[in-house]
Each structure stands twice: as C-alpha cells, then as structure tokens.
Design brief:
The complex is a heterodimer of chains A (about 500) and B (about 130). Chain A is of the alpha/beta class and about 500 residues long. Helices cover about 45% and strands about 25% of the residues of chain A. In chain B, strand 1, helix 1 and strand 2 form a beta-alpha-beta unit.
C-alpha cells in the first residue's frame, strides 16, 4: 500500500467485538496500526488520553456505557483534537445531524466495504495534515507579522479592529486584547475621527486603494492621549465574501521634523533675502525717477544693470518661496473666469524689452473666439511668465510665437521658439524640482525651478504643461486648461 | 499736487532702507511724512497724529503689524484711517489675514515698485476726500 503508513495509529471504539475484529483486520491489512480498542464511550476517552492515537473510529450507538459515541467525541475533541470517523448502522438524518455537531472527519454506514473504510481513513489523514499545515503557516505568518517593525492592523468592513501586531502594541500602547473588536478610530484623536471616517468611506467607495496601495497621512493617538503624525496604507482582501482591510502604518514624526526644518529654512532664508533685494530695487527705482537729482548717461547704465540683477535675484527668491509653499501644501488657488486671449499680452509686455534687445520677434496669435477658462490669474501669469521668459532667454535669433486656441473642451496656449531645443537628457527631468541639484548648464540666470513651479501651479488649476522639442530647431511648450464650462475648479467670482 | 492741505502719511517700518525710499517718494509729491520704527511706536503715532493714511509693515519689533491693525480697528477714533500693508510676505494666508483686519490694500515689497505704491496712495487719498 503506497499511501498506508503503519506508523499511523488508530483507536477503535466499538461495542460489538465481532465488528471490531473485522474492522481491525481490515485496517491492518491496509497497513495501519490498531493501537487500542474500547467498547464504551468512557473507555474510548480513557484510551484516547493514554494512547494519543492519530485517529479514532467511533461507533455512534454503544448502549453499555453512559456516553454514546457522539458524547465521547465531544469530550475528545475538546481535550485532544484527534480526528474522529463515526461508524453507525443507522444512516438516519437525525443521527447524522447530531453527529455533525462535533465536526467528525468522516462517516461510515455499517456494513461498509473495505474501499470505503480506506477512503475514509485516507481522507481523514489528508485533512488532518492540511489542518496541521494551515496552523503552521498561520503561526509562521503571525510571527512574521509580529516581528515586523511596521505596524500591521486588520480591520473589518465596519472598521473594527480584528488583528493588531506587536509593533502596533508598542506604537499605540494598547494590547491586542484591548483593541480587538474596537473601532479603528480609537487610535485617532477625537477631533479628527469624522474626517478620517469620511476619508476611509471615500476610499472604500471609490476603491481607491485598488490596484495601487495609496498612503494617507493623519494624526494618530496613543493610549496615553499623546499624538503623532502617522502614514498608513490600506489594502483590501476578501474571505468568505467578507471584506477586510490591512493597514500598514508608520510613525513619521522624524520625517516630518526634517521636512519641516528644510522648508522652514528655505522660507526663512528667502524672506531674509527678499527684504534687502527689494530695498535695492526700491532705491534704484527712486534714483531712476530723479529723486536723487539729474543722472548722467553712465549712471543710468549702471542703474539699469543694478535693476536687472536685483530683479533676477528677486525672481530666484520668489521661486524658492514658491517651492517651499508648494511643498508645505499651502498654495491656495483663487478662481476667476478669464479669456485666455486677455492674459497673454501682459506676460509678453513683461519680456518685450528683453526680446527686443536680442532682436527677437514676439508673435501673438489670438484665438478668434474667446477662450474662457477658470484659473487663478496670478498663478497662470507666473506659470506663463516662467515659460515665456525661458523662451526669450534661450533663443538667440528668430522668433517666439504664442498662440491661443481651444480644442475639445480644453484651452491651449502654445509657446514656440526658434531656440536651440532641449537636450533629451535634460528633457526627462525638465519639470522636476531636483533639477536645481544638477547644477545644470541649462539654468541660465535662474535657479532652474521655474518650470517645476509652472507645472505645479497648472496642476493646481486642473491644467498641465507639455513640451516637445527638436535640437537645433526649437521647443514648444503647451499649456492646457479645461474650458470654464468643464472645469471643476470652484467658480467664485466672475472676472471678465 | 494741488493746493490742497498736505496729507499726512505715517510709515511704520523697521527697515531704514524702506523708510528712506518711501519718505523720498512721498515728500517729492508734497506729502507730510511721519515715521515709526516698530509697532508700539506706530500705534502711538496713529492715535497722537491722526495721519490720513498708514503704510504698515507686518514683521515689526515689539508689536506685529497684525496686532497694530487689531488695535486700530478696536479704537473708534482711528478705525477709519486707511491702511496699506507693505510687506515682504506674499503668501495668500498673510494677505487674507490682513484683509480680514480691514486693510485697504496689500502690497508685496519688490512686487510693487515705489512708483506703483505712490499711485495707489494717490488714488486712495483722492477717493477719501
């Protein structure tokens, strides 16, 4: 018998010894070991305790003892977790129903064939093995989860905690026993619970975690009511039609501190720099306006240079401040309905002198119809200034063309130049903030943040910027913004 | 400038360079200029001198520009005096906070030239009379 294993030890509990003999013969012939026999429920329990068999074949009806097979099995199951296969002459529904209570591994109706017995035993062995492996794998999984540094929590669809690992116990000071069955919002300060609940509901409704696990930040609370910033991800899984969520969370106090220090530093330094630079600009303005008396040609030339470099410094400082505001997430967007056609001229005016000095022509092609969009005028001005100023800076001869159009629900502003084009390597990180660290030669009289800011501003207005370029031919930057009637950006005031 | 009585303008500003710049522009236009170097002195001069307009910085020693605004708005004798904030702070939250405190105009140093500010002041003083 390839499957049979004589180390597999079976106990027979059967009150009719003839039947028991026959079963023992069969079992031994199949290659298993019969290690004991009992003829009442009580005896069966005693022998099970003593012999610790791998499996018990148990008669259901045994009138000589006080306990029948089902009652005996109940005791054995509770104490020892040994698989039981019932033997009965009555195949009646009532008996089977009653026996089901103790979750037997199998059922054999007497008289049975050898093959039936064999199948029942083999199936019992297989099921027991599976159960063991399942427990082992569950143990393994638990220990992995419990030794994880990251907090792992599972919650059910009602947002009640169903699992809580060791790291969670340490992070929140609650033991698993204290929180299991409690609402997840227990670990959120009272004042944030509603918001988080709404966010979770939204994530569940929109299935946002699917397929990408998205992280969310929130404030968390410990048992002692102290608070800390936490980042967590939410992933869902389904068992028996029930949805569960796994939350993986980490304390981000340190990260927040470093981020805060960095942005505070940038913000502080920039503000400190802004004052003297603005001061120089003001002095130059006053001198140009004759407040210090008549100026010689040479003095005017010098003042023009001073004006230009202080303006440039001022722009760089403003860029740094804008980046630090974008990173702190404090950029707010006001919304006005404007015709894109009206917005281009002031931007071009700003750079017409610089373009003129280089002999560049600035062409402006309006759209025939108005192109109404909802935007933050100042932010769009800033974004377009950054792009158009770049075009003026980098183009040595030829022209810069700005064209407004609307196609398919979107408003577009295209800025095309006849400049050197953009190197494909630089192109990849063109709108990237980290450009600044590359010390790129492409940064000309700026800090290389202009395009990053422009892109971020456009995104805040539900728009975007795209670029295409050919080396030696020129570049084209395209701004796109949804038309007013399509933009969800909240419409506050009409500003035509 | 007409023959009208000279308007009195108070500059509350701790940076000497901006006092120099704005005194220069305003005196050239014939305005009478007063200066305060911090918020406390600024508030005192506002009550004492009843200027026609105040040019107020926000980051100030001893008392911030916001606090000065608060105190002006709480005092019936001076609450109607128009205030232009002239600050290095350009964030929306600063602008909103100041406008919420009854500021007439908010200008960012460096974004607006002295010439720009002068025309704003001229407009406001003409409107007021």
């Amino acid at each position: 018998m390839p499957f049979a294993d004589s180390r597999y030890r079976i106990l027979i509990v059967e009150d009719e010894s003839l039947v028991a003999d026959e079963i023992q013969d069969t079992i031994e012939r199949l290659g298993y070991a019969v290690i004991g026999r009992a003829s009442t429920g009580e005896e069966g329990i005693d022998q099970a305790r003593e012999l610790k068999p791998d499996m018990i074949l148990m008669d259901v009806v045994m009138p000589r003892g006080r306990l029948d097979g089902i009652a005996a099995s109940r005791v054995i199951k509770k104490e020892m977790d040994i698989p039981v296969i019932f033997l009965t002459a009555f195949g009646g529904d009532k008996v089977i129903q009653k026996a089901k209570d103790v979750d037997p591994f199998g059922f054999l109706i007497k008289p049975f064939q050898e093959t039936e017995l064999r199948a029942a035993i083999e199936f019992g062995i297989y099921r027991k093995d599976m159960q063991k492996r399942l427990i082992e794998s569950e143990k393994k999984y638990r220990s992995v989860v419990n030794t994880a540094i990251e907090v792992i929590i599972t919650i059910d669809i009602h947002m009640n905690i169903s699992f809580w690992n060791k790291a969670a116990e340490i992070m929140f000071q609650y033991t698993a026993g204290e929180v299991e069955g409690q609402p997840f919002t227990l670990i959120i300060p009272e004042r944030f619970r509603k918001d988080l609940q709404r966010e979770l509901d939204r994530m569940v409704l929109t299935e946002e975690w699917n397929p990408n696990v998205k992280t969310t930040q929130c404030v968390a609370r410990r048992k002692d009511d102290s608070e800390f910033p936490m980042e967590f991800s939410l992933a869902s899984w389904i068992v028996d039609d029930e949805i569960y969520f796994t939350i993986i969370a980490r304390d981000i106090t340190e990260r927040k501190k470093v981020e805060q220090m960095k942005t505070d530093f940038v913000s502080l330094v920039s503000h400190q720099l802004k004052t003297p630079v603005a001061g120089i600009m003001g002095c130059v303005d006053n001198m140009m306006n004759g407040l210090t008396g008549e100026l010689t040609e040479k003095q005017i030339e010098y003042l023009n240079v001073m004006n230009e470099i202080s303006q440039r410094s001022y722009r760089i400082i403003n860029d740094l401040l804008n980046v630090s505001r974008i990173e702190r997430g404090v950029v707010s967007v006001t919304s006005n309905t404007v015709d894109l056609n009206d917005l281009i001229k002031p931007v071009l005016d700003r750079f017409s002198a610089e373009a003129g000095a280089k002999g560049l022509t600035l062409n402006y092609i309006k759209s025939r119809k108005p192109v109404d969009v909802i935007v933050d005028k100042d932010k769009l001005f800033e974004a377009m200034s950054n792009v158009i100023h770049n075009a003026v800076k980098f183009t040595e001869k030829g022209s810069i063309e700005v064209r407004v159009r609307d196609v398919g629900g979107m408003g577009f502003v295209e800025v095309s130049d006849t400049g050197p084009g953009i190197d494909p390597d630089i192109m990849k990180a063109l709108f990237n903030r980290d450009q600044i660290f590359m010390g790129s030669p492409s940064v000309k009289g700026g800090c290389g943040l202009g395009l990053y800011i422009a892109k971020e501003f456009m995104k805040l207005m539900n728009g975007d910027i795209m670029v295409s370029s050919r080396l030696g031919k020129g570049s084209r930057f395209t701004f796109e913004i949804p038309l007013a009637k399509h933009n969800k950006l909240k419409k506050k005031k009409k500003d035509a | 400038m007409s023959n009208k009585k000279k308007s009195k303008i108070l500059i509350v500003e701790d940076e000497p360079v901006f006092r120099l710049i704005y005194r220069g522009v305003l005196e050239k236009e014939g305005y009478e200029v007063l200066e305060a170097e911090d918020g406390v002195q600024g508030l005192k001069l506002i009550k004492q001198e009843m200027p026609d307009l105040v040019l107020l910085d926000l980051i100030l020693p001893r008392m911030t520009g916001y606090e000065v605004l608060d105190k002006i708005r709480a005092d019936n004798s001076v609450r109607k005096i128009p205030v232009i904030v002239l600050s290095v702070l350009g964030g929306e939250e600063n602008v909103e906070k100041a406008l919420g405190l009854g500021v007439c105009q908010y200008r960012v140093k460096g974004d607006s030239s002295p010439t720009n500010i002068l025309s704003v002041i001229k407009d406001m003083l003409d409107d007021g009379k």
